[in-house]
């Protein structure tokens, strides 16, 4: 069993991935992993799915993980990325050596929950990697990389708790919102 937060459990449906292409929206400091092509479509997607959100008027500072209301599989992710660039100490090498799984999360119990964005980001130009992480990653010793889409992964620590996201070749995903 894996966890997005201490109270939100997920299971992994292996060998399945999201078909959406990530989009890095520059003006909003947000990374969207969705099949939607416009703000209107994104608003609709958020309204017909379960999971974490930004509150009624988008006033809460949360990352959004959206799950289908029928099969409870992950359908979209909207991540804020920090403007605080920080080297993740000695953890980056552990991240690159993480056990890898291909699959997508399935919410065990459909519910609404808060998921705070990570405090830090680290861009590794030589490896073309963008890493979003928080203190949980810095206090962890081992990682599992869950690849949910081509070049997009979620990282879980030795306690199976979500602790970072990872995007490979992020420069290919810059997108202008309509």
Structure notes:
- The chain is mostly beta strands.
- It has 3 helices and 14 strands.
- The protein is globular, with a radius of gyration of 15 Å.
- The chain has an 8-stranded mixed β-sheet with strand order 1-2-8-11-12-13-10-9. The chain has a 6-stranded mixed β-sheet with strand order 5-6-7-4-3-14.
- The model has no long low-confidence stretch (mean pLDDT 86).
- The N and C termini lie far apart (38 Å).
Q: Give the strand order, joined by hyphens, for the main sheet.
A: 1-2-8-11-12-13-10-9
Shape: globular
Give the topology string: H per helix, E per strand. Answer: EEEEHEEEHEEEHEEEE
Quaternary structure: single chain
Attribute tags:
178 residues, mainly beta, six-stranded mixed sheet, 3 helices, 11% helix, globular
Summarize the entry for a quick read:
The protein has helices at 39-47, 91-96, 135-138; strands at 2-5, 8-14, 22-25, 30-33, 49-51, 64-68, 74-80, 99-107, 120-124, 129-133, 143-149, 152-157, 162-168, 174-175. By secondary structure, the chain is mainly β. 32% of the residues are buried.
